[in-house]
Amino acid sequence: MSAKGLLIDYQWCTGCHSCEVACQMEHGLPPDQHGIVVNQVGPWQLPDGSWQFDNIPSPTRQCDLCAARTAKAELPTCVHHCQAKCMRYGDLEELAANLATSPHQVLFSL
Ligand code: SF4
Ligand code: SF4
Q: How would you write the pLDDT of the chain (110 residues) with one tens digit per residue?
């Protein structure tokens, strides 16, 4: 079986934290532990006058890519609950190929 991963197109991330909460509930994690953390970066102004202000979700070492769910052909719960539809689960190679198509994405593997 090919390696799997998560691709997050964070330019569309609203910072709603649904992925964080869904992951915590799915895995029964305590309040201070996370399988994914949504980091707010900025706001600060860049030399060209534009603004750095992004929500950038970062999976942690407690992310197992929702192995129990994907074994049942279900999507990872973070992907399922992301209303912005900016998270994708799939073959790592295929996801990596998508990195070139759009800026401001992060790719996660185990
Ligand atoms: S894939 Fe599953 S374990 Fe990983 S961050 Fe998403 S919800 Fe958490
Ligand atoms: S659920 Fe989607 S939109 Fe909400 S914080 Fe997570 S990645 Fe961003």
A: 799 999 999 999 999 999 999 999 999 999 999 999 999 999 999 999 999 999 999 999 999 999 999 999 999 999 999 999 999 999 999 999 999 999 999 999 99
CA of 101 to the centre of ligand 1 (A): 24
What's the predicted TM-score (pTM) here?
0.95
For the chain, the domain total comes to 1
Domain of 77? 4-109
What are the tokens at 74?
């279900």
Query: Where residue 28 sits, what CATH number does that domain have?
Result: 3.30.70.20
Ligand nearest to the CA of 82: 2
Please count the CA atoms within 13 angstroms of the CA of 88 that sit on its side-chain side.
Answer: 17
Q: How far is the CA of 60 from the centre of ligand 1 (A)?
A: 9
Indicate whether residue 90 lines ligand 2 (CB < 6 A). Answer: no
CA distance linking residue 64 with residue 5, whole number of Å: 10
Amino acid sitting at position 29:
L
